Amino acid sequence: MKSFILKSMGCKSNQYEGALITQSLIDKEFVITEEISEADYFILNSCTVTQKTDNKAFYILRNAKHINPSIKTVLTGCIAQVEKENLLDNEFIDFVIGNDEKLNIADFLLDDIKFAVGNIMIQEQFNNTLLFDTAKTRACVKIQDGCDNRCSYCVIPFARGKSRSASKDFILEQINTLYSHNFKEIVLTGIHIGQWGKDINETFFDLLRFLEKNSPIERIRMGSINPLELNNEIIDFLASSSKFCPHFHLSLQSACNETLKCMNRFYTVEHYLEQIEQINKKFKLPFLGCDIIVGFVGESDSDFTTTVENLRKSGLTQIHTFPYSIRKGTLAEKMVGHIPETIKEYRANVIKQISNINFKKFLKNNINTTHSVLIEKHLDKHTGFLKGVSENYLKIVIQDNDDISMLNTIQKVNITKINNDTLFGKIVK
């Protein structure tokens, strides 16, 4: 029997697909191991959203070869799809497998096929492969793949192809399967989940209402969503839902209208600031995260100041910040006005400071409040106590409690204190 290690980088879709790859390898009698020195194969399910992630991927593969020179390295995922056969020129890469082929990795390894990357742009159908279990407490459910947008900075449409939707029946079957394995919460994920249904004459709102009515799962969390695909009707529906969590991650990318235009993002700052205000009105202490790219091509000092001012008044909980990274083949690559790396890093640090202030304020606002908390399957490694995640995405350590009978259950927890940005709470009897 052959042994393997698998590492998935990047988005929740990649994490979900990594679990499917592991499942398929085990079905073909491969054995999973945690030690590189013991493994026959090292499989990296890669992300190519920035140059930094590319560099990290190549470092991981080189390091695996350094630790175990006889190991066979397999690069799959988005880098493999974009760079293709050029990757085999690297002495630390033995197999290159594309995004549409990754769930059949076992067959390529058994047949010693070194290269398998097809034309993902011609793919029309969503890959309906069920995931039966995962070690995680909250399971991802992939509802969509690909993206039909052409944001000027983004290479992902060329790595993932056109938008393809899973059917409602398949999504419900996947949720039912996870529910039968005692999962209490699922996260709807995809490359652009708000485009769900576009190719099958339905809408994302149709899916949300269908899952509210038909899904047996207790909690449903949405992945990242474009502000154009979140309207007041959906916000009102989610506010009245008995299943959907008050947790939003908005794919904003900038808080300056001029920069948004250059990015080919077709909404305005005013539009999504109004959305954020509506969410904060409709929900009690909702978690509002977002992504912001700083140092985009042509972003002036004035543009950046506008972004800073808008983010300070935005009511966001947490801001994930990324310095702009040139991606080969995108419109932005050839634009005039690229920003020096030192300025990008400075701007990223400014936004991170705003995020830290907002997040600390959010944590404090939750002290002395009671939440529904999904207790994770493992005790907190620092304290040895129970830990869990609230419906509004707070990570909470259960004070002085290591009762393993509560693992993977939903409990009412009162948040009592905060220590070094860690929340502590007690079970409400």
Provide an overview of this structure.
- It is a single chain.
- This protein is an alpha/beta fold and 429 residues long.
- The protein has 3 domains: 3-118, Rossmann fold, CATH 3.40.50; 139-365, tm_1862 like domain (pyruvate-formate lyase- activating enzyme, Alpha-Beta Horseshoe); 370-427, OB fold (Dihydrolipoamide Acetyltransferase, E2P) (Beta Barrel), CATH 2.40.50.
- It has 12 helices and 19 strands.
- It has helices spanning 12-27, 51-67, 78-83, 105-110, 156-160, 168-180, 204-214, 232-240, 257-262, 269-282, 301-312, 341-365, and strands spanning 3-8, 31-32, 41-46, 72-77, 95-97, 115-116, 139-142, 144-145, 164-165, 185-189, 219-222, 247-253, 287-294, 318-323, 370-375, 387-390, 395-398, 410-419, 422-427.
- The strands form 5 sheets. A 6-stranded parallel beta sheet has the order 2-1-3-4-5-6, sandwiched between helices.
- α7 links the parallel β10 (185-189) and β11.
- The longest helix has 25 residues, at 341-365.
- The radius of gyration is 22 Å and the shape is globular.
- The model has no long low-confidence stretch (mean pLDDT 96).
